[in-house]
Design brief:
Neuraminidase, mainly beta, four-stranded antiparallel sheet
Length: 278
C-alpha cells in the first residue's frame, strides 16, 4: 500500500484520535497537543509540559490528556484553558501513557515503566470514573499501551507491549472492568498504539518490526503495512473512516528528539473503516 506523509518534523507523536474532521495527537517531547487536517494544516491545541500522551473526550466535549510527569490527567477546554482533571500521584506507580475514554466518560489508561526499558517492570491499568475517582483495574500488566472500547461499550481491549499481544476485559453494568483474558497473542510482536475497525479487527503499531499489523481476535494476522521508520501508534479516520494514520519516528531522549525531529504522521487507505475507538 502506498503511504503519504501528512506531517513531518515532529519530536515524538503519540495518541492519535480522529475527531471533527481532524487528527488530534500529542507531540510528547514538545509538550504539545495538536490537530491537523487532511491538507496538513496544523494547529496547537494546548501546551502541556510533562510528556502529554493519550487523548480522549468526555461526553460534554472536554478533551482529556494523559500527562506523564507529574502523573495526572489534564482537561482542556474548547478555548485552550488547561486544568488538572485527576491527580494520579500516589496511585500511579509509573507515568501514565496511552488512554481511551468511553461513551460514559470513563478514562482507561495504562502506566508504563519507560525508565526500565528494555526490561520494564509490570505496571497498572487505571480507570478514572465520571466522578473523577481513580481505581486500579489491574496491577500486573505487561506495559499497557494502546486501548480501545468495543462499540457496545462492553469490552476493553488493551495492548500489552511486552506481552506480544492484547488483553481484554469485560466492562460490567456498574462500569467495572474484570475478567481479564487474552484477546490476541502475536508471538514476537511488540504492540504499541492500537485502533479498532468496523469488522472487529485491531490494527496495532509495532515499532520493532517497523509496521502496522491488523489482527483478528484469537491472533490471526490478516494484514500488514511496513513503514520506513518505527511505527508507534495508529488510528482510523478520514472522511469515510478508511484512512489509517501511522505515527512514526524514533525513540530517543527528549533533547535528541527535539533536535532531530524525526517524527511523522503518514497515511494509507485501507478497506475496513474505523469503529470509532479510540
Amino acid at each position: 500500500m502506498e503511504r503519504d506523509v501528512l506531517v513531518e518534523g515532529l519530536a515524538f507523536a503519540e495518541g492519535p484520535r480522529w475527531r471533527n474532521g481532524r487528527l488530534w495527537f500529542s507531540d510528547v517531547h514538545a509538550g504539545a497537543v495538536m490537530a491537523v487536517d487532511l491538507d496538513g494544516k496544523t494547529e496547537l491545541v494546548a501546551a502541556i509540559d510533562g510528556a502529554p500522551s493519550g487523548l480522549g473526550w468526555l461526553p460534554d466535549g472536554t478533551l482529556l490528556v494523559a500527562r506523564g510527569v507529574p502523573a495526572a490527567v489534564m482537561a482542556v477546554s474548547p478555548d485552550g484553558d488547561v486544568r488538572e482533571y485527576a491527580d494520579l500521584t500516589g496511585v500511579a506507580t509509573f507515568p501514565p501513557n496511552d488512554m481511551v475514554v468511553d461513551a460514559a466518560g470513563r478514562a482507561w489508561l495504562g502506566t508504563c515503566d519507560v525508565g526500565g526499558l528494555p526490561a520494564p517492570g509490570v505496571s497498572q491499568l487505571l480507570c478514572i470514573g465520571p466522578d473523577r475517582s481513580v481505581s486500579v483495574v489491574d496491577p500486573g500488566m505487561r506495559f499497557p499501551n494502546g486501548a480501545v472500547v468495543t462499540p457496545d461499550g462492553g469490552t476493553l481491549i488493551v495492548a500489552e507491549t511486552f506481552g506480544s499481544g492484547m488483553a481484554a476485559f469485560t466492562i460490567g453494568a456498574d462500569g467495572r472492568a474484570a475478567g481479564k483474558r487474552d484477546w490476541a497473542r502475536v508471538p514476537g510482536s511488540v504492540p504499541d498504539g492500537i485502533c479498532l475497525d468496523a469488522e472487529g479487527a485491531v490494527w496495532f503499531a509495532d515499532p520493532t518490526a517497523r509496521a502496522a499489523v491488523r489482527v483478528r481476535q484469537g491472533g490471526e494476522v490478516v494484514d500488514r503495512i511496513e513503514t520506513e521508520r518505527a511505527c508507534y501508534a495508529c488510528t482510523l479516520g478520514g472522511e469515510d473512516g478508511r484512512t489509517l494514520f501511522l505515527l512514526t519516528g524514533e525513540l530517543a531522549r527528549a533533547e535528541k528528539a527535539l533536535a532531530n525531529r524525526r517524527g511523522r504522521i503518514e497515511t494509507v487507505t485501507v478497506d475496513a473503516p474505523g469503529s470509532g475507538s479510540p
